[in-house]
Amino acid sequence: MHDDHDHDHHDHDHDHHHDNHYSDMQARVKALETLLTEKGLIDPAAIDAIVETYETKVGPRNGAHVVAKAWSDADFAAWLKRDATAAIASLGFTGRQGEHMRAVFNTPETHNLIVCTLCSCYPWSVLGLPPVWYKAPAYRSRAVIDPRGVLAEFGLALPEEKKIRVWDSTAELRYLVIPERPDGTDGMDEAALASLVSRDAMIGTAIAGSWKVSAAGSSTISAADSPEARP
Amino acid sequence: MNGPHDLGGQMGFGPVAPEKDEPYFHAEWEKRALGITLSCGAFGAWTIDESRHARENIPPADYLAASYYEIWIRGVETLLARHGFATREELLSGHNLQEGAAPKRVLKAEMVPGALARGGPCDRPVETTPRFAVGETVRTKNFNPATHTRLPRYARARTGVVETVQGAFVFPDDNAHGRGENPQWLYTVVFGGGEIWGEGADPSLTVSIDAWESYLERL
């Protein structure tokens, strides 16, 4: 008799029938979730809701919206400098890991870079969940001692005369870098401007993008090619 | 504490590895780890400071070999055991073997949007006035407590300038150990690269930390 069915009769209360080789962490976390659910301490649907929030609702576009508004509205930029928590909250971006916000503005003289050397504090409410590199020892150890070397690994070579200011998030203040507004963006509306702002530009490991040169050699604003930029 | 978490200025971890179009999660279990950690935090049994201390107490070889969400899981398991919600035996087996502590609240799905939107503000009123003023030169203390602190090693016994008085915030060094919130004034203090890293430091570099008042002394 064929024994295909004999090895496959346990622990398959879900849909992934081929998925019976859990990694150690998959097994450990699954056991923990099972235990806590049995004890009535957690609601698996709440976990789904948390994950869905950070996968679909809270992400770097919130931050890009803040930056674009700062670029196009001097009063908002001033408010952001004075009280970033309130200014950002006025756009509806509040909550966990964004309770106390501070916006730091890049200038022609100074480039800002954000790190948390002690854990991985990060402004979730405006940038979503942090990328792996932000949480990893290589970035946390070197951002404060060799920021130019770190930036080079992101492909960002700053002019030598540009000063670098590193902000170590050692308390509950969460930092958002407001990059410099790119040249040639004068006529752009907020949505188009927001499309120029990457997550990394708001951490300080990139600058905001602007012009790109088309194959024909004529300059176009890259945002105009982006579906996000269209009303 | 001088744990494996205190990474500023350490060497040997290799280059940063940015990943193009990085996904939020690299495995299903990372999603569950995030949700479990936040759900357990909602019990109200421990503070974010105690939670950070649980993570920094992971033995260095384990901490540095672990991915970030693994660090979270190790931390939350410690807290669940410490606060009586699950025994070590239950955590190892994954089965409910005995009744444990009851939390102040269990986070249900319908509570998630409100809980995430509220977050956990840490600013608190204090009756004192700030001891240090903007523009003042201050020195960070030199201490090496076995307990939790948010003054990184690289920034101890260093001279910097108070740039901003940020307001008063819960003091993590006490709050992590159940000694109360004991809020203190918090200052952004800026150091020159040379003051921290000495000879060979990038002359264009400044580094700032947010330092609680008791971390600082007058020169």
UniProtKB/TrEMBL annotation, chain A:
It is an enzyme of class 4 (lyase). Belongs to the nitrile hydratase subunit alpha family. NCBIfam families: nitrile_alph. Fe(3+) binds at residues 116, 119-121. It comes from Rhizobium acidisoli. Residues 1-21 are annotated as: Disordered. InterPro entries: CN_Hdrase_a/SCN_Hdrase_g_sf, CN_Hdrtase_a/SCN_Hdrlase_g, CN_Hdrtase_asu/SCN_Hdrlase_gsu, Nitrile_hydratase_asu. Keywords: Iron, Lyase, Metal-binding. It catalyses: an aliphatic primary amide = an aliphatic nitrile + H2O. Residues 24-206 form the Nitrile hydratase alpha/Thiocyanate hydrolase gamma domain. One of its GO terms (molecular function) is nitrile hydratase activity. It comes from the Bacteria. Its EC number is 4.2.1.84. This is nitrile hydratase.
UniProtKB/TrEMBL annotation, chain B:
InterPro entries: CN_hydtase_beta-like_N, CN_hydtase_beta_C, CN_hydtase_beta_dom_C, Elect_transpt_acc-like_dom_sf, Nitrile_hydratase_bsu. The keyword Lyase applies. It comes from the Bacteria. It is an enzyme of class 4 (lyase). Keywords: Lyase. Belongs to the nitrile hydratase subunit beta family. This is Nitrile hydratase subunit beta.
